[in-house]
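re the bet — no i am not wrong, look at it urself. input seq straight from the record:
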Amino acid sequence: MAHSEVLAVGPRSLPEHGTVEVRVDAGSGATGQTITVPVGDLRIAELDNGKGSSALYALRIQ
């Protein structure tokens, strides 16, 4: 089964396991959603600059 990824913004410091709230774009305009996802489904996105208290993640969608 193929997996896709979407960009999400969340806290730079993640727990070792469990879940975390991230913000994802919901489409056009200034809308977005805050969702709770498993930490294991996140990886730092290549676009993240490594600075600040928030990070840009690639969120795996199953």
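see?? Residues 5 and 46 are 12 Å apart (CA to CA). told u. also The mean pLDDT is 91. so pay up
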